[in-house]
Amino acid sequence: xxxxxxxxxxxxxxxxxxxxxxxxxxxxxxxxxxxxxxxxxxxxxxxxxxxxxxxxxxxxxxxxxxxxxxxxxxxxxxxxxxxxxxxxxxxxxxxxxxxxxxxxxxxxxxxxxxxxxxxxxxxxxxxxxxxxxxxxxxxxxxxxxxxxxxxxxxxxxxxxxxxxxxxxxxxxxxxxxxxxxxxxxxxxxxxxxxxxxxxxxxxxxxx
Length: 207
Description:
Radius of gyration: 18 Å
Oligomer: single chain
């Protein structure tokens, strides 16, 4: 809960934020899960750093179970900040705890994520046996170990999988793999195709 005068509650301006240069842009991607109601926790958080000088994209996952100081509140899991105060509070939480400047935020509901992948015609992902079996159980598919062009539903279950030995670490790695494949697909699409998809894509994201 919020206790503005408590000693162990962080000041919203505490901490030093490292500003990005004009050639570096940090965009926070939030995968929101609305399964349990209208208020969502941030099920996945990936900071995409675009370096215009080096022409690179770096992705950094923030584990949803990390215990951090939430500005103006007691310490809690990092995804609770999104539940409490949405994009704005999550952005402040990242800046307070990690010193990163977040230049923009994009949220995608997981139910929309499936449609985004399908609009691209799926994404090619290499699966091991455990990953294939997990997707099969959850979606009724008949995948085997190897590379498959995953549908939106299959890609979503691949991204949700945390059932192997490394749990959420492998889960966030899968999310980065899917995101990389999506970016590759968009980069290889023609401008005409991209513009044709915009009317369908833009209503699915919140910025």
